[in-house]
Amino acid sequence: MGIRNYLIEGVSGVGKTTACNELQRRGYQAIHGDRELAYQGDPKDGIIIDATESIAHVVDEILHQIKANEIRDSRKRQPT
Fold first, then answer.
1. Which one of 12, 36, 40, 75 is most buried, counting C-beta atoms within 10 A?
2. Which keywords belong to this entry (predicted)?
3. Is the pTM above the cut of 0.70?
4. Per-residue confidence at 54, pLDDT binned at 50, 70, 90?
């Protein structure tokens, strides 16, 4: 069984950051989207890039990882 991931979303001021801080305080791994994912720079060299390109890159990386996980999981289920 894989690790479950949860997305906490909502409009400004509802407590997303507070919830993330509390999860981290309790020892859970949590990512602040406004902090960790908001940097608009190339992950390889740090040079600032167009925000649209940066977001597209992050989405591409996430989708690539999801697909890789699906392939890995399907291989685990195949009989040997």
1. 40
2. Kinase, Transferase
3. no
4. low
